[in-house]
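Sample log: Polysaccharide deacetylase.
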Amino acid sequence: MTLGRPKWPAGHRCAAMITVNLNAELFWLQLDPSCGKMPKTLSLGQYGMTRGVERIMDVLDQRKIKATFFTPGWVAENYSEKLLEVKRRGHEIAALGYRHENMALLTDEEQEAVMKKSIEAIKKICGDPPRGFRSPEGELTLETLRIAKKYGIEYSSNLCDDDRPYFKDLGQGETLLEIPIHWANYDLPYFAFNYHPAFPAGQGRIAGYEGVLSNWKDEFYGCREYGLCYVLQLDPAVIGAPGRISLLEDLLDYMKEQGDVWFARGSEMTNFYGN
């Protein structure tokens, strides 16, 4: 397929991929390992698994939308019942490292060990290996993608160099489907906050809710206008709060009202581009 205006299934005008990053407490542990002794900080991530995931799935169920849940292997092992519920509801489980590692800081050998361990953990819990991969911390090397493909990954959702899926050149005649992302369509940069360890480092966040919803709608409007692929990233600990879940409801309702959006999981996008 070319990089021109995509032609989506059944005459849809644009595509949308709703994704959830099941970071749990690993986001904070990766930021500062000493958080392992800070129950308050750990609880920020745990909240997403105890409350946020269920709220997100209920919103999706009500609108008959299936999402892609990027999951660290450690989370699959430690929240196995929650992950099985995600799968039972028809959502896709994709890989997100093992313990939320910054892949760009690892050697090739370390990356391979992480990739293998994360895929095996998901397969053990869910019965099927993940088809997609997103790198924790949003950082990776080209070798990361080569390793992902070596272990059976069929698509990546990591890069920001386009707004439609394309085949990333991995060298030596190898390619991997890339489904690009953009920071504006991710809840974490707007809302994540903690005093210690300080995040963001300079503080000065939590964004106004109406402003964030307006941003998301504007970004979607642009994608629909040009017939592109809108990828939303959600963290259950963020969007799953009772005062914020309505942002997701309002956004999805706005998208559904258009009547011409193809909501696809990563594997469905891969099947389509593979045909």
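Observation: The beta strands are 14-21, 68-71, 92-95, 132-133, 155-156, 166-171, 174-178, 229-234, 261-263.
Observation: Residues 12-274 form a domain with the TIM Barrel fold (CATH 3.20.20.370).
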